[in-house]
Amino acid sequence: MKRAIFDAKTRLLMRNDRRAFEVMVRNERLGGAAFEELSRGAATRIALHAFDSSPFYRELYAGAGFGREDVAEAGNFSALPVVTKAALRDAGDAVLSMTVPSSRALVSQTGGSTGSPLRVRNDQAAPTAAMWWRIYRWWGVHPADDMAFIYRRLRQGREALVYAAQWWPSRHLHLDARAITDDAIETFVRDWQRVRPRLLVAYVEGATAVATHLARTGRTLPTSAVSVTAAMLQPGQRALLESVFRAPVFDTYRSAEIPWIAAECEQHEGLHVAGDQRLVEIVDDAGRAVDAGTEGSVVVTDFSNEVFPLVRYEMGDRSRRLDGACACGRVFPRIAPVQGRLADVVRTPSGRRITGGLSGLFLGDPGAIRQMQVVQAADYAVTIRYVPTTPGGARDAAATAVRALRTLLDDDAVAVSAMEVESIESQGGKARLVISHAPDAP
Ligand SMILES: [Zn+2]
């Protein structure tokens, strides 16, 4: 019934999104060569649009020696300069396209948890609805199904009423990730049992907090699919969420700047890039592509934001490309779940910076812990704080992790220890993998 009403409503009101959705579902199954051509064409087109209409990009590309014909040449795309968050912040409105009507610009603010906030614009004309409809379909969820959300922002008053009317007759439950108290969770659980949502969409930390509370009293909240975002999903967290929500967990990669970048399919073998809408490159410090399997910096191009072009935009995250085809048969390339932030760095007194491998310290026994965090003091001493799956049950795994970290650091002057904790602190629903108070060596 709900699906039928949704169908009628979108036929009437969202004709463009429906059309985009049908094309997107077909694009997943293109042949390899046809997909490459689509991707290359879209990347070149948006870079040229940026050059032609955004003063920021015109100056950036011209300054690097690229003329209009060079930008129009598909083979040059991966040599175009990478755009950083700091550069966008400094450029301000110079990033905006001069040819796209400003009425299409939707303001989106990125979180300030890893630096100062950045104000970007999403494009109202982008087929964003179709993008999430398609990904929900990978999970067996229909956009009209009842859903629950654990988010960092709640709609209030009139905005909440408009939202509910828009979604009628589908029901959406919300829990504010910034204020997860036992009382708030109990209210959420009561609403859940009344609505029985088919999908939970949540920040990793929010979902973990709710699941931990329920697991303590042996309760479950069955649903069909759980989708998480905004932080690294640690293996123990996935196991906890699957046991409480009795459903597969789908990791997603998205941001305020670029929504719906990548998501897991039913195979759970990495995240498929929504490759007809975005290009994801994994690059080294010089902006050059690294081999599949090698960890590097994530650089994303959004094909569908013409208002505020994001071309070769450095996300500030680390990941790696996965080789080979996915068993699901979709042509879209895959990346490993995001392995932490570029800012997740442990330092040694001798001046080394360790950025990779930290997320894998417990890989020998991933089920032993729910979550961990590496904390480095000002004197370089490192503590692995971890939440065990059962109290006292991860001492061996922690000892192994300490040894693994000592090997990574390769510096006897750095003290390494492990500490069992009840929870890992998060800021606004996001927990950092590494917190370092140590200075860069002189
Ligand atoms: Zn797949």
UniProtKB/TrEMBL annotation:
The lineage of its organism: Bacteria, Bacillati, Actinomycetota, Actinomycetes, Micrococcales. This is Phenylacetate--CoA ligase family protein. Transmembrane segments: none annotated. It comes from the Bacteria. It comes from Microbacterium sufflavum.
